[in-house]
């Protein structure tokens, strides 16, 4: 199997694991408080992540160069996953996924300020279209603006900030180490927060089926993070990002078939706008990378 084929395979697995994870969170949120779900998601994800990092880095699996960026990664990662889980608890799977996918729009919006990137007319136009899509979905001028939608937008914003930090970390540290430290920190911080701030919410069930789902959630979380890492290792970022947008229609279909969720016409229109906007941004990123590679080849001649 070629490296590109491996990259495509891991990208498709990322979509599958992402949808299954979201589906499990919605199911578990019917019986457990979000803080309980977060605690076990982190702890049950650790064994496979520890093993993977050890196989790659041996006893240097916790070695980090950019400690400030790593600290920000932990904070933003915890914030993002918390908002994701809260959004999944309160709004439909398809709507939540559409809002999560809008993070690339916010990355493009913030990149001139934080990464010093130049944004052309195509990507600015895509940002405007994407923001219109977000407005159509959230409908902020409606008196019925839900808390779940606010959580979804917050997840997209923190996810965008996280993407920017990960770009910086990717230049200095191993993704296996970054992922492992984030999950270790998340497990301890969420457990401590649950014990101190939400002790009354930590009511665990004796239902063995729910415990099975919690274990599966942790395993899926570890598989998801590893599949993302390997997808970016074997394929160009543009290919990975494009294929990950398959999660939007897949999540909508799962939401319809399993949870009987039907989007409104405005939500569908908004999701389409976000999808088109994101594809334009991905296309321009591909063009930019192609030009950069061509210039490097000319200089090497």
Main attributes?
301 residues, single chain, mainly alpha
Terminal CA distance reads 31 Å
Unreliable sequence segments: none
The biggest beta sheet reads: none
What is the ordering of alpha helices and beta strands?
A: HHHHHHHHHHHH
Write down the overall geometry: globular
What is the count of helical runs?
12
Describe the structure.
With 301 residues, the protein is mainly alpha-helical. It has one domain. It contains twelve helices and no strands. It has helices at residues 3-28, 34-57, 67-90, 93-101, 103-114, 121-138, 147-169, 175-196, 208-234, 237-244, 247-259, 265-300. Helix 1 runs antiparallel to helix 9, helix 5 (103-114) crosses helix 6 and helix 6 (121-138) packs antiparallel against helix 12. The longest helix is centred in the C-terminal third of the chain and has 36 residues, at 265-300. It is globular. 42% of the residues are buried.
Short structural description:
The protein is mainly alpha-helical. The protein has one domain.
SSE map:
Blueprint: H1 3-28, H2 34-57, H3 67-90, H4 93-101, H5 103-114, H6 121-138, H7 147-169, H8 175-196, H9 208-234, H10 237-244, H11 247-259, H12 265-300
Helix pairs in contact: 1-9, 1-10, 1-11, 2-8, 2-9, 3-7, 3-8, 4-7, 4-11, 4-12, 5-6, 5-7, 6-12
């Amino acid at each position: 199997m070629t490296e590109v084929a491996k990259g495509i395979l891991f990208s498709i697995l990322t979509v599958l694991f992402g949808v299954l994870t979201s589906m499990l969170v919605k199911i578990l949120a019917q019986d457990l408080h979000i803080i309980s779900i977060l605690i076990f998601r982190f702890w049950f994800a650790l064994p496979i992540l520890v093993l993977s990092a050890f196989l790659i880095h041996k006893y240097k699996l916790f070695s980090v160069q950019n400690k400030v960026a790593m600290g920000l990664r932990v904070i933003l990662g915890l914030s993002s996953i918390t908002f994701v889980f809260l959004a999944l608890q309160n709004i439909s799977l398809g709507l939540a996924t559409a809002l999560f996918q809008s993070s690339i729009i916010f990355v493009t919006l913030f990149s001139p300020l934080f990464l010093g990137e130049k944004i052309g007319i195509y990507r600015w136009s895509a940002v405007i279209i994407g923001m219109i899509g977000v407005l159509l979905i959230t409908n902020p001028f409606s008196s019925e603006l839900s808390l779940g939608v606010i959580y979804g937008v917050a997840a997209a914003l923190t996810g965008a900030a996280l993407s920017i930090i990960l770009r910086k970390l990717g230049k200095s540290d191993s993704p296996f180490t970054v992922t492992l430290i984030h999950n270790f920190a998340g497990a301890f911080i969420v457990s401590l927060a649950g014990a101190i701030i939400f002790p009354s919410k930590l009511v665990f069930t004796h239902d063995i089926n729910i415990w099975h789902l919690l274990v599966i959630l942790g395993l899926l979380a570890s598989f998801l993070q590893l599949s993302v890492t390997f997808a970016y290792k074997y394929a160009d970022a543009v290919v990975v990002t494009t294929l990950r947008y398959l999660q939007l229609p897949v999540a909508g279909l799962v939401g319809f078939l399993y949870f009987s969720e039907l989007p409104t016409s405005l939500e569908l229109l908004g999701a389409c706008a976000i999808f088109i906007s994101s594809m334009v941004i991905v296309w321009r990123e591909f063009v930019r990378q192609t030009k950069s590679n061509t210039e490097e080849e000319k200089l090497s001649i």
